[in-house]
Amino acid sequence: MATHWRAKQTVRSNPLRAEQAHRTPRPLRVLLGEDQSGLRSLIRSTLMRDGYEVQEAEDGPTTLRALVAGLLEEQPRELDLLIADVRMPGFPSLELLARLRRENWFTPVIFITSSEDTALHAEAARLGAACVPDKPFELADLWARMRMVLSPA
């Protein structure tokens, strides 16, 4: 099973998040948008076992609502990583990322996809996705990418 990783796009880090991380230890927050419930459950349970705080979304609109809700809470809860299927029902993740980038939202994103479409991979990289592994993939490979994306610069 071949896993195709794309080069990591340089994304500006949030200096406020880095400063807060040194002051207040908290679990890293991951939003997981995946329409396949079995895969979503597997990734969620593994992330939670490893100490991550995970919020799930089963489609594009739910992913967008989760992002906005976290920002609108009385004490906004910053997201550390978004993992999303590229082609979720209701709202394509590439469109979501394009809108977020236009609003200067630079939280790292890992897209997962069942498509080996090179144009899709190129567009994801252009928008700043850290990587785009193709399904099926090994969880160990996804975890290695997550560690690379989340490690302090």
Explain this structure to me?
The chain is an alpha/beta fold. The chain has a domain at 29-115 and 125-136: Rossmann fold, CATH 3.40.50. Helix content is 44%, strand content 12%. It has 6 helices and 4 strands, in the order H-E-H-E-H-E-H-E-H-H. The chain has helices at residues 15-23, 37-49, 60-72, 93-102, 118-127, 139-150, and strands spanning 29-33, 53-57, 81-85, 109-112. The chain has a 4-stranded parallel β-sheet, sandwiched between helices. Helix 4 (93-102) links the parallel strand 3 and strand 4. The longest helix is centred in the N-terminal third of the chain and has 13 residues, at 37-49. It is globular and about 40 Å long. The termini are far apart. Residues 1-21 have low confidence and may be disordered.
Strand order of the largest sheet: 2-1-3-4
> Structural class given helices, strands, pairing?
alpha/beta
Query: What is the arithmetic mean of pLDDT?
Result: 83
What is the alpha-carbon Rg in Å?
15 Å
Number of strands: 4
What distance lies between the first and last C-alpha atoms, to the nearest angstrom?
Answer: 31 Å
The percentage helix is 40-55%
CATH superfamily of the domain at 29-115 and 125-136: Response regulator
Give the CATH topology of the domain at 29-115 and 125-136: Rossmann fold
Number of DSSP helical runs: 6
Query: What fraction of the residues are assigned to beta strands by DSSP?
Result: 5-15%
Oligomer: single chain
CATH class category label of the domain at 29-115 and 125-136: Alpha Beta
Order of helices and strands: HEHEHEHEHH
Poorly predicted runs: 1-21
CATH hierarchy: architecture of the domain at 29-115 and 125-136: 3-Layer(aba) Sandwich
